[in-house]
Amino acid sequence: MSGIHIDDVSRVFGDFTALEQVQLQVREGEFFSLLGPSGCGKTTLLNMIAGFLDPTTGRIMIGERDVTDLPPYRRGLGIVFQDYALFPHLTVFQNVAYGLKVRKLSKSEVKRRVDEALALVQLSSMAERRPHQLSGGQRQRVAIARALAIEPSVLLLDEPLSNLDAKLRKDMQTELKTIQRRTGITTILVTHDQEEALSLSDRIGILGHGRLQQVGTPLEVYRQPANRFVADFIGQVNLFRTEGVPFERVERYGRYYADDYETEAGTSLILETAAAPSETTGTFMLRPERIRIGDGGSTGINQVNAVIRHVSYAGDQVRLLVTLAGKGELIAVAPDPVFPVLPQAGDSVQLYWDAADVIPLPTEGV
Amino acid sequence: MTDSNKRLPNGSDPKPKSGRRRVRRKWSLLTTLVWTAGIGVYLFLVAPMFVIFLSAFSPTEYPTFPPSSVSFRWFTALFTNSDWGEALRVSLILLLIVTPLTVILGTAAAYALGRLKFRGREAIRSFMLSPLMIPQVVLGIALLYEFTSLGLINTLTSLVIGHMVIAFPFVVRTVSVSVSSLDPKLESASMSLGAGRWTTFRKITLPLIKPGIIAGTVFSVVESFGEVSISLFVSSPGNITVPVRIFNYIDQTFDPSVNAISVLFIAVAVVAMIIIDRAVGLTKVL
Amino acid sequence: MARTSVVKRTNSFYWLLLTPSLLFLTAFLVVPFIMLIVLSFREVDSLLNVLPTYSLSHYTEVFTSGIYLNTIQSSLGVALLTTVICTLLAYPAAYLLVRTERPALRTLFYILLISPLLTSVVIRTFAWIVILAQNGLLNELLMNLHLIDKPLSMLWSMNAVVIAYVQVMLPFAVLPIATSMGEIQPKLRQASMSLGAGRVRTFFTVTLPLTLPGMLSGAAIVFSLAAGSYITPLLVGGRLQPLLPLAIYQQAVQVFNMPFAAALSVTLLIMVILVVLLLGWISKRWEARLRD
């Protein structure tokens, strides 16, 4: 069991910088997710941790050991690949035993550990099957058992659930988390699925444009995104641009003009934020689920009259795309029973929100 | 979604600033060994071609390495010997007859095999490809016996048939590759738009499997032009093809004008490769 | 019902396209082989005229005479040796073809690989004579380098036959191995290495088993070509090498004992078919483990 220290790692392919000066510390026993859109460099980073790719600069430490120059077969990591990468010519048992035989363990020891690993993923009865005789979920569990059987110091999961259908994916998420808790193994999950990352991880590292944009707990990255990229990538978001200078201060509140949004009176939307105003903040975010339906007290602050452009009903919630009377669009999400009857496109609606939900985003970064 | 900002991070300097760039040991001993062995194998493959070139322009009967001087005497010998002209004539006539017949037969067969679904289809496919694997000496002797019985021996027909049997599987194989990558839905779409079966075949199928047909044609030409195992059995003194003439020259007298004619075959191979590359890409053939 | 008739009509169109080829191959592949088999049982008189009577006499001679048993044995040996050498050499060649990252280099490898297939066998064989002859290129080179004092006798031997065979047939072994190597997901090798297996071990436990079908289909082609060619052994080995194709050629073209040549041919054909079927069976069994 050991943590991972990624020290100033960069990777350049020709003229293209896939990853730029990543500094990251994954703690011992932690479930850590690397989250980002495709092409963000997360696979590059994973391949470098695994040893399939050399970093252009920087060092990678596993525990106290500098593994930067070690080939993959000397790193002692367990890897679960996206499409499982089970050896098609070997049985489930032989697949799981593969890494143990390489380590020249005695036959009885191999058998004991394979049985143990298969029991962990509840596949003991499938030992003599071949990969093609298994369902997607079962293959996935064999892949996990194979990676865990060698008792690795770190478990790397490369988009392990992306090939499963939605329901199975939920089940496997729970199972992954259970296995990780039970074994206490340091785990790095690479994924582009924010929900997966949010629900499974102790901490998340968000990668974008070859850089580590933010590292934090799921709560932190969702509620306090470090920059626009993170805000935009995780969940849906309404973004307001302001001049960055509050026109009014009320106690601890700052009031701004959101220049992109115009009310029916032809004036800019007035935004009130609970955050301490600063001269540099130019952008604020507002999560759609924080917007409420109603008149909000007719203060003219943090509230708008709008026309519904589009309604989509998802069962547990209703999503509205609305246009302000002057200009600007907002997305609002309301839990299902809010509307007795579903609103229609073209209906008028009043929206309001709390000053505490208007979150300033730092201007630096992207 | 509100407006998203997908600019590259501070677009100015794409290179990492940190100066500590490692020079990695990319070449392990193992990699070096494998590459050495592999390159050795490729050199071994190409050595004979290289030697042919050396011989063709060598002033001596046996070439020397490194070559002492360049000479065209074997080419002169080639043109002054009427035997070669006659052999070339026979070979070309054969090509003109064998190629279209084989390509039409093979294309029709490969297309039908790609579309028909029945038990035993793979057996028929193997049967059609079998001339590739059948010992040539056995095929030669079997055809010799049959043609003798039919009274076809010593005719050009026997050579035509022999060459067709040899070239046919090559056409079937290359066209099959094109057919298998052709989506049958395209033909269904064409027919649903009112085109008949023949119109569909001409306007949709044929253009889409053309690369395979071109490659098949090239292989058919090359196989027919270089064929010797069957020809040797079924050809007569009046119908001697170039490869048979070469065989006789090597077998009986060592005539260095073979050196010069060999260059012709290499030229044919080069042209064939260029056409195949243009049509289907060298990496996709076979 | 209307639907079935459309399908039927479509199918009859395809059968119409297939029929000419089937007829052609029946007439010039099936019929001659049947005739050959029948001929192999015909008796001959002392002047080698074919008699209307049938017997097993030719086969008896093939399988009892020491000369022909020896010929069968050495034919089998040469074909197997060629197959083994081709397969061994094919792996590094296929590896380079699949692994090289430069498109230009890959194209070059393909050119080197395909060019022998596009050159007549007489030409390639002729080149080997030029290389291996007493006053040939290789002897010349070795003498110039003072590695030998007098020319080695390399031509007119079984070794020369095997060398020429290997060069002629190598592409048939490389291409299918390269194809199956290219189909292996890189992730499988990565998985193997992440589990602690080095590159050599990964080759033997992952790459080799998964390229087995390609290797076997290449081996089948190489074996049948090596067992059945007579041009190459005739020119670089000489007429007297104990090889079945040479014996058949001699019986047919020089001795004019067609029934005996036919019996030898049938023997060779059965030998090749048995080996090819065996390799195909192994390959099928193996692939059945990998797929449904």
Automatic annotation (TrEMBL), chain A:
Catalytic activity: a quaternary ammonium(out) + ATP + H2O = a quaternary ammonium(in) + ADP + phosphate + H(+); ATP + H2O + polyamine-[polyamine-binding protein]Side 1 = ADP + phosphate + polyamineSide 2 + [polyamine-binding protein]Side 1
Keyword annotations of the record: ATP-binding, Cell membrane, Membrane, Nucleotide-binding, Translocase, Transport
One GO cellular component term noted in the UniProt record for this chain: ATP-binding cassette (ABC) transporter complex
GO MF term set: ABC-type polyamine transporter activity; ABC-type quaternary ammonium compound transporting activity; ATP binding; ATP hydrolysis activity
EC numbers: 7.6.2.11
Top-level lineage group: Bacteria
Alphabetical list of Pfam families matching this protein: ABC_tran, TOBE_2
Domain ABC transporter: 4-234
Record-linked NCBIfam families: potA
Main function: Part of the ABC transporter complex PotABCD involved in spermidine/putrescine import. Responsible for energy coupling to the transport system.
Assembly notes: The complex is composed of two ATP-binding proteins (OpuCA), two transmembrane proteins (OpuCB and OpuCD) and a solute-binding protein (OpuCC). The complex is composed of two ATP-binding proteins (PotA), two transmembrane proteins (PotB and PotC) and a solute-binding protein (PotD).
Similarity-based family: Belongs to the ABC transporter superfamily. Spermidine/putrescine importer (TC 3.A.1.11.1) family.
Name by which UniProt lists this protein: Spermidine/putrescine import ATP-binding protein PotA
Gene name as annotated: potA
UniProtKB/TrEMBL annotation, chain C:
CDD domains: TM_PBP2
GO BP: transmembrane transport
Gene Ontology, cellular component aspect: plasma membrane
Residue ranges of every copy of the ABC transmembrane type-1 domain listed in the record: 72-279
Record-linked PROSITE patterns: ABC_TM1
Transmembrane portions of the chain: 12-41, 76-98, 110-134, 154-182, 203-236, 256-282
One Pfam family cited in the UniProt record for this chain: BPD_transp_1
Family annotation (InterPro entries): MetI-like, MetI-like_sf
UniProt keyword Transmembrane present: yes
Locations listed in the record: Cell membrane
Gene3D superfamilies recorded: MetI-like (1.10.3720.10)
Recorded topology in the membrane: Multi-pass membrane protein
Keywords: Cell membrane, Membrane, Transmembrane, Transmembrane helix, Transport
Similarity annotation: Belongs to the binding-protein-dependent transport system permease family. CysTW subfamily.
This protein's name: ABC transporter permease
Biological source species: Paenibacillus lemnae
Lineage of source species: Bacteria, Bacillati, Bacillota, Bacilli, Bacillales
